[in-house]
Amino acid sequence: MHHYGARSMRARLSRADRAGIAVGIGLAAAAIAFRMATIEPRAYVGICAAAHRPLICAPRQAVLWLQYEQLFGFPALLLGGLSFAFASRWLGVAGIALGVVAVVNFNGTEGIIGAALGLWGWLEAATPGYTGEEHG
Fold first, then answer.
1. pTM of the model
2. What value does the mean pLDDT take over residues 98-117?
3. How far is residue 12's CA from residue 25's CA, in Å, rounded to a whole number?
4. CA distance readout (Å), 39 to 59, 61, 64
5. What is the pLDDT of residue 81?
6. Residue 126 in this model has a pLDDT that exceeds 60
7. Closest Cα partner for 15 from 136, 130, 131, 126?
8. Quick one: pLDDT at residue 122?
9. Closest Cα to residue 121, out of 20, 5, 25, 26?
10. Which residues of 7-40 are buried (b: 16+ CB within 10 A; e: fewer)?
């Protein structure tokens, strides 16, 4: 029976990993806050339909357009897939962050798959490979 040394396979959180976690949490919080403040309230429908609408209506309209065109979900899927393929930490961070933003903005299927693939790629990049002897 061979022991592969589970300790050597454990992922370690580096400063870059902690920064990636902060970026992901920050973008998720910003997306949720923006959605709850400007997109969910029904009052904004009338306010943004007015002739002299406030400036907040432009980013609101952009987010809604990106949501309807699935332009949160598909880029998240692409970034997550690239992170998975190349075991890239920063592509993983981008895939996770955009995947969560996609889920918040109802591009859930592509967003959650992109986030999962991004996490997998990120963990592959953060986990040192097995360096012991080869076993047949």
1. 0.81
2. 96
3. 19
4. 10, 9, 8
5. 97
6. yes
7. 126
8. 92
9. 20
10. eeeeeeeeeebeebeeebeebbeebeebbeebbe
When mean pLDDT is compared across 72-76, 122-126, 127-131, the lowest value belongs to: 127-131
Give the angle subtended at the CA of 134 by the CAs of 130 and 136, to the nearest 5°.
130
For tokens 């981008």, the residue is 94
Residue with tokens 């050597």: 8
Give how far Cα 112 sits from Cα of 56, 60, 65, 98, Å: 28, 23, 20, 9
Reported as a pLDDT band with limits 50, 70 and 90, residue 14 is confident
* Per-residue tokens: 76: 């998240």
Q: Which residue has the tokens 């903005």?
A: 105
Tell me the C-alpha distance between 28 and 10, whole Å: 27
Secondary structure tally for the chain: helices H, strands E: 6, 0
Spatial distance between the Cα atoms of 33 and 105, rounded to a whole number of angstroms: 12
DSSP letters, 27-92, are HHHHHHHHIIIIIS-THHHHHHHSTT--TTHHHHHHHHHHHHTTTTHHHHHHHHHHHHHHT-HHHH
